[in-house]
Amino acid sequence: MEKFVESFLEDMGQRSKDKFKEGGHILSYPKYLELVSDNPSVHLRDAAGYIKDMFDFYGTREVDYPWGKISRFVLFDQPFAGPMEALVGQEEAQQAFYKVLQSFVRAGRPHRLVLLHGSNGSAKSTFVASIGRALEHYSTTDQGAVYRFNWVFPTDKSGSSKLGFIRGELGARAGEYAYYEDSDVDARLPCELKDHPLLLLPLEERRRLIEAVMKEKGADLAVPELLGRGDVCPKCKLIFDALMASYRGDLRQVLNHVQVERYAVSRRYSRGFSSVGPQMSVDGGERQVTMDRSLSALPKILQNISFFEPFGELVEGAGGLVEFSDLLKRPVEAFKYLLETIETGEVHMGQSTLRINAVLVATSNEIHVNAFKQHPDALSFLGRILTIRMPYILHERTERQIYEHQVVGGLGKHVAPHAIEVASSWAVLSRLLKPNAEHFGDPQRGMVKELMATEKFDLYEEGRIPSRFTSEEAKNISGTIEKIYHETDNLPVY
């Protein structure tokens, strides 16, 4: 058994090394530019384009309802996580969210906060969590590859930092600092905001590269504002400028210090996805780099510069999605900073202003939404918010799926026959509202007014028309099912 364990560990270690190498997890800057030129559609996008492409990557399927077919995004079925994690129903909300992503891509950046609102139990948190799990899986695929960069400063044999002005054995590997072993590196400084590596190129050179790549590949891509006009974070800008001064403007030498790293989105470790609870403070901050790093560990040229590194939920979610759970439970003063962040895509943090490349999504109970509308600052916020309604499920077979997953699947015990069907039927019946005949014209008005709760239930479930209606009446009511179903879409009832 001892030999087996040793062989198993050796084989596992080798396969892990091979997988890491094949995945291109660590790259020099020139190698990264080769990736960009080979596949611009993967590398020339911001957070909104990334999430939209993720929706397209998993595709759609058709769902049957009595009034017709509705497209459903497969990612909400959570094929990579299992049926227990799936979002049941809410196809209209899925379509609305996808249209918002499309508008962000057209605009060049996420220029609105997306607010999911509805009653308790309407799957708002499940909706966002489904996107988060999909991001985790998508980031491990070739199409979902996403990169950030670190600053690498090599050391000579005596152990003192030379910023790359080194000779001898290491000097023969000039331009390969990205691949140095830890023992050969004096300091490695990450970009906490996970800035796009292309932002390291001066704006004019960056635009020239993008135009050349798209012309060569015949690509017609909408370049996001982030790449068209953006810049690196203030900390990285200070490092970049210091290196440019040391190398007398030799950009190639500066880029030798860049290590491009592929990373995977993680909800648990708040990497590319973060969730902000209804706390009372700004969701980020800054601290001096030397607060948790010895000053002597930094290259000498940086030791006389005071620069800060950002931290907090806004920073952790950069490059992906930031969720503000139950946003409106906070006092308005606690999230007023979002007004400017939504408008400009930037947030002020102490010493600097940071560009946040992330899709901002919030959830709220309808009670808090209605109360918020009475606030004096509500109009300022509502002009910067796109709302997506999350109604209760009114289709029994859809509701039953929730019970089958959470009760039958989670209870671990026998469930009496028809218990789930009875429970889901009761839940749907308790949510039905008597139709308002004034919303319908003749001849449907009279028939709709006479509908009983159980008859409305049957209309939604199977499209079954009450037997007491004549064939002509049945024909009229049959064409009205969808209108009845969406009667309350613009009303604060669910």
The end-to-end distance, rounded to whole angstroms, is: 61 Å
Question: What's the total number of strands?
Answer: 15
- Helicity range of the residues? 40-55%
Query: Compute the gyration radius: what is it?
Result: 28 Å
* Percent strand: 15-25%
Structural class: alpha/beta
Uncertain runs: 157-174
Kindly report the spatial arrangement of strands forming the biggest sheet: 8-11-14-4-15
In round numbers, the mean pLDDT is 79
Largest sheet: 5 strands, parallel
C-alpha geometry: elongated
What is the overall number of helices? 22
Could you explain the architecture of this structure?
- This protein has 494 residues and is of the alpha/beta class.
- The chain has 22 helices and 15 strands.
- The chain has helices spanning 2-22, 29-38, 40-43, 47-58, 91-107, 124-138, 168-171, 203-217, 225-229, 234-246, 251-255, 300-303, 313-316, 337-344, 366-372, 378-382, 396-411, 419-429, 444-450, 453-462, 471-478, 481-485, and strands at residues 26-28, 60-65, 68-73, 113-118, 147-154, 185-190, 258-262, 273-276, 285-288, 308-311, 321-324, 346-349, 352-355, 359-365, 385-389.
- It has a five-stranded parallel beta sheet. A four-stranded antiparallel beta sheet has the order 1-7-5-6. It has a two-stranded antiparallel sheet with strand order 2-3.
- Helix 17 (396-411) packs across helix 18.
- The longest helix is centred in the first third of the chain and has 21 residues, at 2-22.
- The chain is elongated and about 90 Å long.
- The chain starts with a helix and ends in a 9-residue tail after the last helix.
